[in-house]
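Supplementary Methods. Inverse-folding protocol.

Structures were first reduced to a discrete structure-token string of length 373. This string, shown here, constituted the complete conditioning input.
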């Protein structure tokens, strides 16, 4: 294989799973992250300490690379533009990353491309919200740097405005959500495009955190086809070179709306490692190397659940529980090896495969009980 230098911005678990698949192809991956404790640090001899949001750090790291990709979207796009102008291949393009980095520009882009989204207005600060009480209730989302539900709040009435974000945000119409799904789509430089079947995310409503994720999603065939079409249309509108997670809502009256985009490997594609012919990580490597896309066919049904950091007093017990789970058939543990973490941080995930989602779910319930005990 051609020994191109591939640089990844961000050194978290998604980067680590990318490295794991790069090994199959004999590719070398360099990583830049702002923490020496990042999961990737131990898997590459070319680990660079630097802040992906810092212009100079990204420039210094990228100028020695042939190809740059990302595993987080909080990256300095000005530096990426400059690298791209100097001949470094940047996938996805800095323009794509910029559109997606800001929830307002992301929304406008989707609307202009004719992709269905919930209507929203831009709100520059908290005081502007008082002029928008007629738009309430609504869902307020920080334009930048929100993740895992931390940049999202429901504003029910004028009384809630007091505790609202005081930074640029969008106020979105409340959606009557029946299901949340995600479709991962890949597109290469030649315009070859393909997507995986939708996964269904089941959320813990209180904490706005994922409980578990199912694939295939329990939705009608027509909805699957429509979701796939929307994902492909979005990738084409972006002229994407890379992979993209398209998170969508299915409303109670059966409509599909795009919620948000992530132009990188995504949680909702973890199951592709064990339950699809080509994993999302391999797919991204194929794209950035200019190779043909791999088959997105599912090989199994699956359930994926995150393993979160427990309270300090429960840590030892959880380790024991995880080891006992390894005795179950078709249960795959991915442990990210993060050094410590506050309660609730994502520390790993478990993918359960089986012939049907129902069978995988029943194993998931057993695992839940083992972890709880
Ligand atoms: P994050 O980027 O932090 O994951 P999301 O935009 O995905 O934030 O929102 C988190 C959760 O909030 C969603 O999974 C959904 O359950 C809920 N949510 C988001 N937008 C709306 C909306 N317009 N109406 C109702 N609930 C919403």
């Amino acid at each position: 294989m051609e020994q191109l230098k591939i640089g990844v911005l961000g050194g978290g678990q998604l980067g680590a799973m990318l490295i794991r698949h790069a090994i199959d192809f004999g590719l070398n991956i360099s990583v830049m992250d702002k923490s020496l404790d990042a999961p990737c640090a131990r898997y590459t001899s070319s680990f660079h300490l630097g802040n992906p949001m810092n212009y100079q750090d990204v420039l210094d790291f990228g100028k020695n690379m042939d190809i740059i990709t990302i595993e987080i979207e909080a990256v300095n796009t000005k530096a990426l533009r400059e690298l791209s102008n100097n001949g470094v291949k940047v996938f996805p393009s800095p323009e794509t990353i910029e559109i997606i980095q800001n929830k307002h520009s992301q929304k406008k882009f989707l609307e202009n491309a004719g992709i269905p989204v919930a209507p929203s207005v831009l709100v520059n600060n908290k005081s502007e919200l008082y002029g928008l009480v007629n738009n309430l209730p609504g869902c307020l989302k920080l334009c930048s740097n929100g993740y895992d539900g931390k940049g999202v709040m429901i504003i029910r009435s004028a009384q809630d405005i007091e505790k609202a974000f005081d930074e640029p945000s969008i106020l979105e119409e409340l959606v009557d959500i029946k299901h949340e799904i995600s479709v991962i789509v890949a597109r290469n430089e030649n315009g070859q495009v393909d997507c995986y079947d939708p996964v269904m995310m089941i959320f813990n409503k209180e904490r706005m955190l994922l409980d578990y994720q199912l694939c295939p999603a329990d939705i009608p065939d027509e909805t699957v086809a429509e979701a796939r079409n929307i994902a492909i249309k979005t990738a084409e509108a972006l002229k994407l070179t890379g992979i993209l997670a398209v998170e969508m809502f299915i409303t109670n009256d059966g409509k599909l709306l795009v919620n948000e985009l992530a132009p990188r490997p995504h949680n909702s594609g973890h199951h592709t490692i064990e339950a699809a012919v080509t994993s999302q990580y391999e797919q991204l490597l194929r794209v950035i190397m200019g190779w043909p896309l791999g088959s997105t066919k599912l090989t199994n049904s699956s359930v994926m659940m995150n393993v979160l950091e427990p309270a300090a007093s429960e840590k030892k017990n959880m380790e024991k529980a995880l080891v006992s789970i390894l005795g179950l058939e078709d249960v795959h543990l991915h442990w990210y090896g993060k050094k410590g973490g506050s309660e609730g941080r994502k520390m790993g995930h478990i993918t359960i495969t089986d012939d049907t989602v129902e069978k995988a779910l029943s194993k998931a319930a057993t695992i839940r009980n083992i972890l709880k005990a």
